[in-house]
Amino acid sequence: MMQERKDERSLGELFAELARETSNLVRQEVELAKTELTQKATQVGKDAGTIGVGGAIAYAGFLVFLAAVVLGVGEFMPLWVSALLVGVVVGAIGYFIIQKGRNDLKRADLAPRATIESLKEDTEWAKEQIK
Q: Which pTM value belongs to this model?
């Protein structure tokens, strides 16, 4: 019975229905893309925060350890040598924390993969509707 109704519709009606369905589909795809990009942007924000925290810790660590260890090691060697040694160690720790944040950012996949796949499916669906 449903098949008979489709046969009675004109070509114009069929194209109008296809246009409506396509319009709804595009709106849904835009919403999907917005949602997916929001999620990815949130993750990038967290990774950038990790870099910031690593930098702040490295700076604070540099100041505290420099002062404390330089004075302690200064008992056995010149103060400038002990300051250099402490600075290198604390700087290396900060460097590794910053690299971790950068690597996390590089691994972030910002492309809206679900939307891309859905658009491919929609393209196939539209091709089938035109046949």
A: 0.40
